Amino acid sequence: MHLKNASLQYILKAVKIQNPMASIKVKFRPSTVADHEGTIYYQIIHERKVRQLPSDYKVFTSEWDESRSMVTTNQKSERKAFILSIRERIRWDVERLNKIDKKLDANGPSYTADDVIDEFNRYANEYSLFNFMESIIVKLKQNGKVRTSETYKSALSSFKKFLASQASKDNYRQDEDIMLDCLTSEIMEAYEAWHKSRGVAPNTISFYTRILRAVYNRAVEDDIIENRNPLKHVYTGVDKTVKRALSLPVIKKIKALDLSLNASLDFARDMFLMSFYLRGMSFIDMAFLKKSDLKNGYVTYRRRKTSQQLIIEWTKEMQIILDKYPENATEYLLPIIKNPGTNERCTYRNMGYNINHNLKKIAKMVGVQIPLTLYVARHSWASAAKAKGIPLSVISEGMGHDSEATTQIYLASLDTSVVDRANSIILNCL
User: Fold this and answer.
1) Is residue 254 pLDDT above 60, yes or no?
2) Which of 279, 244, 226, 274 is nearest to 360 (CA)?
């Protein structure tokens, strides 16, 4: 038995010797037209079979070093950054081709140069950043995590815009993708700097980089790439932001405005006040409130963000606003999603944009300097509660916890009547 195993190992070694790993070389094909760029391609030789893998990289003959089989440039060249970027891409391509070759070799002696090329192309299609993120977005939607999928889509869109901005500088195609294992510290630092140059807030930048980090880590976990930690030099934390809140006198001014001649402003003011009345309810939760959620003088709903169930006493102030829109024939309580079943999430987002746009006009009417949005209503209620001496155990420091979920834990542990009494105190001040 031992001899048989030894013989088998000998045979396998002999096969390996006869079938060595593929030879991978970088080649350049000059243009047949004078003063035109030539094309870089990869030559793959295995078992005396020669195959060519074309690339999208084009350089002039003067930018190719035949002895080194690599692109070259000088310090004064206007195309220096472009050539260096191509050099880096070639390095990544060759590294990936060698990895594929080793993998195929380890799996067995029988593979061809065509197999190497096919695997390279498959990898490029499946494991580019764009395609990989798109596949994650699809899975998130399938798992019912629609909001999370939207944040991933937003981060992907942001990174595409960044690459397009770089493309205009370095002569890339604006729709050009990037491989997951080509994400480097330099690229991520440039991405962060690009955001800063456009005046984007640090927390927003961190929001996008955290999503990209999650995508990268997913690829590492799936053994698609090795962890090179490309985000080690960019900020991925969360700065504590100054909470924007309106005082009760200002809320009174907004409530007292005569907006009867402007339906859009009137509706925006009503939705802002409704959010305030409903203890700072987020707009997405307001949009998807159903008429069936209002029973026996109470609104019962589950927060979309935390899945926390909340119960709120329905007050006359809320009913006054509701009575202004009797034409609402949908299943929803508030006239936000007017065509149920027709891209509802897109509808509520567009409505939110319009409301926030009009709220900024209202802010000018009452002399408010801060950017007025629906979310300000949430912090305004919390601030008002604190100003009225309502215990922190009831409102948790005006919802000023580092995590909103922590605030929800506080609220969930209280008798809802306590919170309703707190809400009554606030609304009676208007």
Assistant:
1) yes
2) 244
